[in-house]
Each structure stands twice: as C-alpha cells, then as structure tokens.
C-alpha cells in the first residue's frame, strides 16, 4: 500500500485542512459500530421511491440513454423543474437559461457558494444550521457569520439581520437561509420572509435559499423568498426529501440568467453533468408526481406528533417542527450544555443514536437532533429506550 511522500504531507489545500469531516456523518459512522443501536442520526427517508419514478429510471437504462446530457441537465428535466416551481409556488424560471440540474442539493449549494464568493467575503448563516454550509464557505476563502437564533424560536428576524449587517460591514456578500430548517424543522412565516427580503435588498446582498424540505410542511404552506426578491435569490431544491430519492442524487438551482451562466461553469467543472437515469426519474417525479409527497407528509406529521408527545413525557423541550423531519431536543438539565456527552451516553448506554446539537453551529449546544424519518417500529422502540435512559439519569 503506498504512503504519501513525506515532502508532500503538508502540500494539500490548506483551507480544506482547516475544516473537519461532517459532524453528522462522523457520529453516524461511530454509532454504527454499537450493536443493537437504533440510528436516528441521518436525514434518510425510510419511504420507497414511487413506482412510476423508478420505472422512468429503468426505461432510461433500457433505452441506452448512456451518453453525456447537456451540462445544465436534459431539457425535459429542466422543464419539469419549471413546471414544479410554477405549480407549487408560482415561480417562473426559464428552463433554458435560469435552471441547472445538479448532483443533489449538496452540489447546488457548493456550486452557488463557489460562484459568488471571493476571499474576504462574509456569509451570514442563521444557526443552528446544516453543518455542510460552514466548511464550504471556508474552502471558498470566505468567512461565516453565525447568528445564534436559539433565543428567537430559531428564526432570524429582520431586526436581528439589520443589526448583524451593521456590525459586520460591507464585506457581507450573502445570507444563507434554510427553511424548513435542518436541524430544527422550523418554517419561516411569509411576513418574516418579506421582512428579511427588504433588508437583503436594502443592503445589496445575495440570498441562497436552501428549500429542500419545502414539500414537507405541516399545517403551513411554504413561501419562497424568490417570490419577493427573485433578482437576488439563488433557489436550491431537489428530490431527495420530497420523493425519498436520496441515492439518486438529484437537485437543482434556479436564479437570474446572468448568475446561472456563471454557476453553470462551476457546475460543469465539478461534475460535467448528472446521471441520465437519475435525471429521467427526477423529470418523471416533477412532471407527473406533484402529489407524491402528500402521503409521506402525513406519515411524517404523525411521527412528529409521536416524538413530541414522547419528549413531553420525558420532560424534555423541543422546537415544534412545522416542516422537515427532525426533532431538535434540549438535553436533560443533569448534562448542562454537554450535548456531546449526552449523545454518546445515549448511544452507548441507551442504544439510541442522535446528533449532538453543537455540530450545527452556534445555538446548537445543549441540544440533540433526532431524525424521525425512520420506521414507526424503530421510532417506538427508540422512544421507549430513551425514556428508560433519561429516567435513570434524572
């Protein structure tokens, strides 16, 4: 087995060296070695991909659709993205010039940040937030400005954003919003989005809107900030959560044509183009499967209510999710703010895996995130085990 030459050991990208691996994946990997543990760590739907969507992928393979697609994705897929955004949110993007099909929403986030950021720029991120954002900003040579929202119901208010921008100065380039949010499941009300949009426009900023959970809301309708400031918005979404297609790796970004032209170059440098069978499946989902998420949404809402009730019975508080499929739970007082110790004790002694809240940035310390995108049986057993564990630690 080859070993890296000693004179090359420090010659890799130094910005990459500044960041660690994904905290979520790292915890999930460590916990996977614990016998009998129930994993509630990853946002991995336990649902199956709809049959008509799978059939489209199979047909693509059978038709020998094995050559490079256009870099932005097939026109039929981009038309499907246009169809979905128009039907669900009234957003009108030209499939020829304003949409890119990406390898998951992850690639869309990466391509967006690498397209707009220069060294010295700052990105405002309300936290706790999806852990992927922080290292990508760092690797792009920019700086994250983490805004702790734990004392404002996990929402960045326009007033708070205005204050942060006054403190940080003109080097702020963008605001990154994820709603419904990971790890909290909190959705932003329309009035709050409109207020944030005004501040963002007044300060001449971009907004990257990661709306991957937009189809999974409970009792509220998702309202995209692209409805208010489309000229400043990079809209990111995908099929992983709405159609349980995590392994297909299909996402997309939409925005003004001039910006999408630049992002297309970055996207092309990174991946050339997405997989054809995955694109065929995504196109089918977006053209003919707009109602597919409804059944999943009902299941997740029922599971949310079950987890909420279970936490109430344990005397633990959590942010009530109005979207996504995460429970962000305050750990027992006996652990203080040490969410890492609580998560590891719960895994090793209680046989339930969750992600320490500190993995999600400022405001996450003292919390633990559970995904309720798990089977009903696993959730029931996990809550039973956790109740017994918490009772012993009281």
What would you note in describing this structure?
The protein has 394 residues and is of the alpha/beta class. It has two domains: 143 residues, Aspartate Aminotransferase, domain 1; 225 residues, Type I PLP-dependent aspartate aminotransferase-like (Major domain) (Aspartate Aminotransferase, domain 2, 3-Layer(aba) Sandwich). Helices cover 42% and strands 14% of the residues. It has 13 helices and twelve strands. The strands form three sheets. It has a seven-stranded mixed beta sheet with strand order 2-8-7-6-5-3-4, sandwiched between helices. Strands 9-12-11 form a three-stranded antiparallel beta sheet. α6 links the parallel β3 and β4. α4 runs parallel beside α10, α7 runs parallel beside α8 and α11 packs parallel to α13. The chain is globular and about 60 Å long. It starts with 13 loop residues before the first helix and ends with a helix. The model has no long low-confidence stretch (mean pLDDT 95). One of its GO terms (biological process) is amino acid metabolic process. It is an enzyme of class 2 (transferase).
Summarize the SSE layout with pairings:
Layout: H1 14-17, H2 23-31, E1 38-39, H3 51-62, H4 75-89, E2 99-103, H5 104-116, E3 122-127, H6 133-139, E4 143-148, H7 158-168, E5 172-178, H8 190-202, E6 206-210, E7 233-238, E8 250-254, H9 257-271, H10 276-288, H11 293-314, E9 326-330, H12 339-350, E10 352-353, E11 355-356, E12 367-371, H13 376-393
Helix pairs in contact: 3-10, 4-10, 5-9, 7-8, 11-13
Structural class: alpha/beta
Question: For the record, what CATH class of the largest domain applies?
Answer: Alpha Beta
Q: What's the multimeric state?
A: single chain
Mean pLDDT: 95
Which sequence of SSEs, written as H and E, runs from N to C? Answer: HHEHHEHEHEHEHEEEHHHEHEEEH
Q: How many domain regions?
A: 2
Percent range for β-strand residues: 5-15%
How many beta-strand segments? 12
Q: Report low-confidence residues grouped into runs of 5 or more.
A: none
At the fold tier of CATH, the topology name of the largest domain is Aspartate Aminotransferase, domain 2
What is the CATH H-level superfamily of the largest domain? Type I PLP-dependent aspartate aminotransferase-like (Major domain)
Cα distance spanning the termini: 51 Å
